Amino acid sequence: MISIYKSTEKGLESIEEIVNGCWINLTDPTPAEIEKVTALGIPQDFITYPLDVDERARTEREDDGKILIVIKVPMYVGPTVDVPYTTIPLGFVITDTVLVTVCRHSHEIIQEFASGRVRGLSTAKRNRFILKVLLSTANKYLAYLRDINRTVDALEDKAQKAMRNKEVYELLKFQKSLVYFTTALKSNELVFERLHRTQLFRMYPDDEDLLEDVITENQQAIEVVNISNNILSSMMDAFASIISNNLNVVMKFLASITIVMSIPTIVTSFFGMNVDLPFDGFPFAWLIVIGISVGVGALVTFIFMKRDWF
Q: Which residues cross the membrane (predicted)?
C-alpha cells in the first residue's frame, strides 16, 4: 500500500500525487507501487532492502546523494505467539525532493505520524522528520520494556505456587523478545553513532540536539533491556527450582498421609487374626482397637509435624 502525505497550513494532509516536499509511506508495497516510487530515480534496492524481515540496521549512500537508513523498530505481535514482542526493519529513503518510508508491516509509529497528531511535523524538513521517528522508536522500546516487566512481575506471583512448566514457558517467550530487543537496539546504536559522525544532521543545531536525544534514549533502552534480561534469566532458573520444590512438598505430604492412613490397617489386621489375642472375651474390644489405631496415628502425626514432614 502506498500513502502520500504533505504538510500544509492546516496540518498533515493525504494527497494523491507525488510532489516536492511530500512524504511517501510504503507498507508491503506491490510491484506496481515500487515501480512508481523508483521512477523518481530511487534505486530499487533501497525499497526492497527494508522489506526483508531479517535485514540489519545500516545506512547506505548513492553517488547522487540519495541515502538509505534502515533501523529496527519494536512490534507487538500478540500474547498467544512464541515471541510476543519482536522487531522489524523500517527504511528511510532521503532524496532532494521527497522522503520515503518503507516497512513490511503497518506499524503504530508510522500510523501515529500519519494521523497528524505529532506536533511540529513538516514533511519538507526530511531530516527533522526522520529524527522524530527515531526518537519515537527509542521511546517505544522503553514503553514495551515496561509492559514486559509488568507482565513478568505478574507471572512471578503465579510461578511461586506453580507445579507445572506453563509459567516457565511464558517467561521463555519474553526472554526471546528481550533477545530480539537487545540485538536490534545495539544495531540501531551503531547506525545512530554513524549518523552522528556524518554531516547529515549537523546543518541545524536543533537537529543535532535531537539526534543526541535519540542516542541517549537508545542507550537507556539498551541498559533497561540488559537489566531485564539478566533478571529474567536468573528468575527462570529460580522458578525451575521453585517448581521442583513445590512438587517435592506435595510428594512429601502424600507420603506422610499414606503412612498415617496405613496405621489403622496394621492394627486392625493384627487383631483380626484367628488366634488368641488380648481382649478376646471383652464385648467392647473394637473400641479399644479403634483407640489404639487413633492413638498410634496421632503419635505418628505429631512426630511428622515436629520434624516438618507434613
A: 253-272, 284-305
Q: How far, in Å, are 21, 93, 94, 117, 165 from residue 129 at the CA level?
A: 12, 12, 11, 13, 46
Query: Which phi and psi (to 5°) does residue 93 adopt?
Result: -115, 120
- Return the HEC string of 82-111: CCCEEEEEEEEEECCCCEEEEECCCCHHHH
pLDDT at 163 over 60: no
2-245 fold: Beta Polymerase; domain 2 (3.30.460)
Residue 69's SS3 state is strand
105-162 pLDDT, tens digit each: 888 888 888 887 777 788 888 888 889 999 999 999 999 999 988 888 887 777 666 5
* Domain boundaries of the chain, sorted by first residue: 2-245, 246-306
Q: Are 90 and 49 in contact (CB under 8 A)?
A: no
CA 243 to chain CA mean position, Å: 23
Q: Is the Cβ–Cβ distance between 261 and 267 less than 8 Å?
A: no
Task: Round to the nearest angstrom and report the end-to-end CA distance of the chain.
Answer: 66
